[in-house]
Write a structure and sequence with these properties.
Elements (H helix, E strand, L loop, with lengths): L19 H8 L6 E2 L12 H14 L1 H4 L9 H15 L8 E4 L1 H13 L5 E6 L3 H8 L4 E8 L2 E2 L1 H13 L6 E4 L13 H13 L3 E5 L24 E6 L11 E4 L2 H12 L7 H12 L2 H27 L5 E2 L7 E5 L6 H10 L2 E2 L1 E2 L12 E5 L5 H20 L13
Parallel strand pairs: 1-12, 3-4, 6-7, 7-8
Antiparallel strand pairs: 2-9, 4-5, 8-9, 10-11, 11-14, 13-14
Length: 416
C-alpha cells in the first residue's frame, strides 16, 4: 500500500479546490431550509414529455448509431442544426465545422484552459465572475487580472488602464473571459456599446475573447443584444453555450463555436479527455431542435423564471433594509445583493442557516478574494410560495447583522 500519496500527485492537484457552491449545497439539504444558493434550473422547466418523444424517435430512427462511439467534434446532425440556429437566431457566421460538442459548458472551459494557459499566464475577467471558470483556470496555474463589473458590464475604462499597465510591465494576457448576457453571478447585461468596445480592445492588444453564454436565450424583457461572437469578423471570439438551461443539465451537453484552428486544437485536447461526448444525448438534442420543440419550450422557461424573478424582487423591495442594494436582471437565473460595508456575508451565513435560509457568499465569485459584503441569490429553483418566506427570513438575518457587532474582524469590499 502506498503510504505517502502526496509525493505522487501532480503539483497542479494542490491547486484544486472544492466548489464553494457545492459545499454550501450540502448544508442546505437540511429539512426546512429555503435555499437560494444553487444555480439549478427548475424541474418544471424540464420538457419531460418532449424528451420522451425525442427518445422514441431516436429509438425508431437512430438507435444503433446512438449506441456507438461518435466523432470527437460531435454528431454532425446536431452540429449542423446548431450552426443553422446560431445563424438564424444569433446572427453568427458559422458552419458545422466551426462547432465542437462538449460535456457541458464546464468541459468547454477546461478545453480553453488546456489549450491556452501555461503556468504563470495571465487572463482577464470581471469581478465578480463565474466561480467554475475561476476554478478551471486556476487548476492550470493561471493568474487572473480582475476588472470591476457595474450595471452595464465589465468596466471598459478600467480594462484599458489595466491592459496598459500590464503591457508596460511586459505581461501579455492570453484572453478576456466574460459572461456578457445575464451574468452569473450578478445577472448583469453588458450593453451593446461595451461589447463593441471589448472587441476593439481585444483587437488592439491581439487577445481572444471567451464569451460564455449559458443564459442568452432566457430573456424576460427588453431588446435582445447581439452576442460578441456575432460581431466577430476575425475569429477572435470563442463562444460557449450549453443545453443545461434550455433542455436539461443531466444531458451534460454544451458546444463551442470558434475558428477552425481553435476547434482543431480543442478536438485534439478532447480526444485525450473522453474521445467523444455522449452520443445518445446528442441525438436527443438534435431531435429537440429539429422537431421545433426548443423555441416552444423557451417560451415556457422565460414565463416561469420571469414570474419567480418578480416574486423575489417584490419581496426584496418589501422586506430588505433600505441600505441593501440589488440588481434587477432582465433574464437568466440570478440577482446580486450588495450589503452595507459593515457586513461580511461569509460570517453571516451561519446565522442565515439558523434562520433556515441559504445563499452563496459573494467573495467566492471574486478572483481577488474581495466582495465580502455581497451575495448571489438564485430565483429560478425555489417554489413560488416559499420565495417570499425565504426573502423575509434573509431580511431578518441582515437586519440583525446590521444591529449587532461581529465577534471577529470583518473584511468587506464593494460589489456591483
Amino acid at each position: 500500500m502506498v503510504v505517502n500519496l502526496d509525493r505522487l500527485f501532480a503539483n497542479r492537484t494542490k491547486l484544486l479546490k472544492s466548489s464553494e457552491i457545492r459545499e454550501l449545497l450540502k448544508l442546505t439539504h437540511a429539512p426546512g431550509i429555503i435555499s437560494f444558493a444553487g444555480g439549478l434550473p427548475n424541474p418544471q422547466a424540464f420538457p419531460v414529455e418532449v424528451i420522451n418523444k425525442c427518445i422514441d424517435k431516436v429509438f425508431d430512427e437512430h438507435i444503433l448509431r446512438a449506441l456507438q462511439y461518435g466523432t470527437t467534434e460531435g454528431l454532425p446532425l446536431l452540429r449542423g442544426a446548431l450552426a443553422e440556429r446560431m445563424k438564424q437566431r444569433k446572427g453568427m457566421d458559422c458552419e458545422m465545422h466551426d462547432i465542437i460538442i462538449t460535456n457541458g459548458a464546464q468541459q468547454a472551459l477546461t478545453l480553453v484552459a488546456f489549450c491556452f494557459l501555461n503556468p504563470g499566464d495571465t487572463y482577464i475577467s470581471s469581478k465578480p465572475t463565474y466561480l467554475a471558470a475561476i476554478q478551471s483556470f486556476a487548476a492550470f496555474e493561471a493568474n487572473c487580472e480582475s476588472i470591476p463589473l457595474n450595471a452595464k458590464g465589465m468596466d471598459i475604462d478600467s480594462l484599458r488602464r489595466n491592459l496598459k499597465r500590464l503591457h508596460n510591465t511586459g505581461v501579455v494576457p492570453k484572453f478576456i473571459y466574460t459572461v456578457p448576457t445575464f451574468q452569473n453571478p450578478a445577472g448583469v447585461l453588458m450593453s451593446l456599446d461595451r461589447r463593441k468596445e471589448l472587441l476593439e480592445i481585444a483587437s488592439d492588444y491581439d487577445l481572444i475573447i471567451i464569451e460564455d453564454d449559458p443564459y442568452g436565450e432566457i430573456f424576460f424583457e427588453g431588446e435582445e443584444i447581439p452576442s460578441i461572437k456575432s460581431m466577430d469578423t476575425k475569429g477572435r471570439v470563442v463562444y460557449i453555450s450549453t443545453f443545461s438551461k434550455i433542455l436539461a443539465p443531466g444531458f451534460r451537453l454544451g458546444w463551442i463555436i470558434a475558428s477552425e484552428e481553435i476547434i482543431n486544437k480543442f478536438a485534439l485536447a478532447k480526444q485525450s479527455m473522453d474521445l467523444c461526448s455522449n452520443v445518445f444525448s446528442q441525438y436527443v438534442a438534435y431531435e429537440y431542435i429539429n422537431g421545433g420543440y426548443l423555441d416552444l419550450q423557451l417560451e415556457k422557461i422565460r414565463a416561469l423564471y420571469k414570474n419567480k424573478r418578480n416574486i423575489m424582487l417584490e419581496s426584496i423591495e418589501e422586506y430588505f433594509p433600505r441600505e441593501v442594494k440589488w440588481t434587477i436582471p432582465q433574464g437568466g437565473m440570478f440577482l446580486w445583493i450588495t450589503l452595507p460595508k459593515s457586513i461580511d456575508a461569509r460570517l453571516m451565513f451561519k446565522r442565515a442557516l439558523e434562520k433556515k435560509v441559504a445563499y452563496v457568499i459573494g467573495d467566492a465569485f471574486h478572483p481577488d478574494g474581495k466582495g465580502h459584503n455581497t451575495m448571489r441569490l438564485n430565483f429560478s429553483y425555489s417554489e413560488d410560495d416559499v420565495i417570499e418566506e425565504g426573502i423575509k427570513r434573509l431580511a431578518e438575518v441582515i437586519q440583525e447583522e446590521m444591529e449587532g457587532p461581529y465577534e471577529e474582524e470583518s473584511h468587506v469590499a464593494d460589489g456591483v
